[in-house]
């Protein structure tokens, strides 16, 4: 047994809808994967290949609260379909990509938009705006064995009852098999990897005291209180 110099940190995890937990290895996020959102962010979705960034596994938070982060005055909500992998590999083919999926959940890609904007202007990585403590609120995972592979259905978000985001999973520019296949060209995917698949248009700021309700057909509602 390895004699670690301090206690091993807890394993990042996502609760499973009935019982148990899914251990998380890495989090990959695809940017601007809904055409309307790409346009509202000032980009042309028809001419851009997919691109990715990462969040830290310990950014995940299933507590139902989102502590407003430091060093920012402009935090935005982004509702996303979360994909959890049970296996992986390299150069995964489209016709077998979904075989690697364990389940799906509702998630939020919370973004310090002001810090992300500064990084963009300087041509720097986005992590300072994307990968901070509690930056990925998440609901329970639903296993494929129970719900199959959702490829269409409403995805929406309200803040204090006001509809902010609304779309359909079938509006994703890059579908889940394509995302898995593309990622596997550049990374060796493995069990425990999580993919956040992008957000519809309508992203916007939240403040302390706000109640976020994010939902995807078949996956229920993720309720998060901003504190």
UniProtKB/TrEMBL annotation:
<feature type="domain" description="Fumarylacetoacetase-like C-terminal">
    <location>
        <begin position="27"/>
        <end position="227"/>
    </location>
</feature>
<dbReference type="GO" id="GO:0016787">
    <property type="term" value="F:hydrolase activity"/>
</dbReference>
<protein>
    <submittedName>
        <fullName>Fumarylacetoacetate hydrolase family protein</fullName>
    </submittedName>
</protein>
<dbReference type="Pfam" id="PF01557">
    <property type="entry name" value="FAA_hydrolase"/>
</dbReference>
<keyword id="KW-0479">Metal-binding</keyword>
<keyword id="KW-0378">Hydrolase</keyword>
<dbReference type="InterPro" id="IPR036663">
    <property type="entry name" value="Fumarylacetoacetase_C_sf"/>
</dbReference>
<dbReference type="InterPro" id="IPR011234">
    <property type="entry name" value="Fumarylacetoacetase-like_C"/>
</dbReference>
């Amino acid at each position: 047994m390895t004699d670690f110099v301090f206690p091993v940190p807890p394993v990042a995890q996502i609760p499973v809808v009935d019982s148990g937990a899914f251990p998380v290895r890495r989090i990959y996020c695809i940017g601007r994967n809904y055409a309307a959102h790409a346009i509202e962010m000032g980009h042309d979705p028809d001419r851009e290949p997919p691109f990715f960034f990462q969040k830290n596994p310990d950014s995940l938070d299933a507590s139902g609260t989102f502590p407003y982060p430091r060093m920012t005055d402009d935090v935005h909500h982004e509702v996303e379909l979360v994909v959890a992998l049970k296996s992986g590999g390299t150069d995964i083919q489209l016709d077998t990509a979904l075989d690697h999926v364990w389940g799906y959940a509702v998630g939020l890609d919370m973004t310090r938009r002001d810090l992300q904007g500064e990084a963009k202007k300087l041509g720097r990585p986005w992590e300072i705006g994307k990968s901070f403590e509690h930056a990925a609120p998440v609901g329970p995972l639903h296993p494929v064995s129970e719900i199959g592979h959702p490829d269409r259905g409403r995805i929406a978000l309200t803040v204090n009852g006001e509809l902010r985001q609304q779309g359909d999973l079938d509006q994703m520019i890059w579908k889940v098999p394509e995302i898995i296949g593309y990622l596997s060209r550049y990374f060796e995917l493995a069990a425990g990897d999580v993919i956040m698949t992008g957000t519809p248009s309508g992203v916007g700021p939240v403040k302390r005291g706000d109640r976020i309700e994010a939902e995807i057909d078949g996956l229920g509602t993720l309720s998060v209180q901003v504190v």
